[in-house]
Amino acid sequence: NAGVTQTPKFQVLKTGQSMTLQCAQDMNHEYMSWYRQDPGMGLRLIHYSVGAGITDQGEVPNGYNVSRSTTEDFPLRLLSAAPSQTSVYFCASRGIAGTSYNEQFFGPGTRLTVL
Amino acid sequence: GQQLNQSPQSMFIQEGEDVSMNCTSSSIFNTWLWYKQEPGEGPVLLIALYKAGELTSNGRLTAQFGITRKDSFLNISASIPSDVGIYFCAQGASGTYKYIFGTGTRLKVLA
Lengths: 115, 111
Known about the structure:
The complex is a heterodimer of chains A (115) and B (111). With 115 residues, chain A is an all-beta fold. Helices cover 0% and strands 50% of the residues of chain A. Chain A is built from no helices and 11 strands. Chain A has strands spanning 4-7, 10-13, 19-25, 31-38, 42-51, 54-57, 64-66, 76-78, 87-94, 105-106, 110-114. In chain A, strands 2, 4, 5, 6, 9, 10 and 11 form a 7-stranded mixed sheet that branches. In chain A, strands 1-3-8-7 form a 4-stranded antiparallel sheet, with no helix packed on it. Chain B contains no helices and 11 strands. Chain B has strands at 5-7, 10-14, 19-24, 31-37, 44-49, 55-58, 61-65, 71-76, 85-92, 99-101, 105-110. In chain B, the strands form 2 sheets. In chain B, strands 2, 4, 5, 9, 10 and 11 form a 6-stranded mixed sheet that branches. A 5-stranded antiparallel sheet of chain B has the order 1-3-8-7-6, with no helix packed on it. In chain B, a hairpin with a 6-residue loop joins strand 9 (85-92) and strand 10. Chain B is globular, with a radius of gyration of 13 Å. The N and C termini of chain B lie far apart (38 Å). The chains are: A mainly beta (115), B mainly beta (111). The interface between A and B is medium-sized, with 24 and 25 residues.
């Protein structure tokens, strides 16, 4: 199993550009989520999904869109990048039920800089 | 957004020393989680706690779910260089899928 994979690993954008951060998992997990990590702020939830076709907002959803057309993939779209979106983005997944109910697996992160 | 108060923010310790860090919240939740993040990587779950008073160990790591359900601590005994990283606490409420993360404790171990 590859676990949770994210691409790209690094990205530089200009203000106003749009892009999609990719996330995929091969563990057949129902739940997937996106976090951003900023210095001194910990991890903040952007959007999450509890299954294909179902998404919901987290703490900081503004400026981001998500969709979940398959169990495996959960892309994050930046509609019009702003310098405030410079951050490290982590995708995570976990199963809904089972012995590892709360074990959330994180991807390696995407480091995004918006100029 | 709401965040957990985690302390200390950073620690520099000698190899072999014990380490203690804690997390407090103004709200009551049903789950406490402790994660470790190494440079350039995503967080990895260390310990999960599910009820007040619970004390759980994972090797040299021990964590407790506070009786008031508003705090938790993580201890690392006999630290080694590979313990270096950022340790995060997180809280989750039953019936939701949202976790709130602390701001992290950055640990450095001097050989």
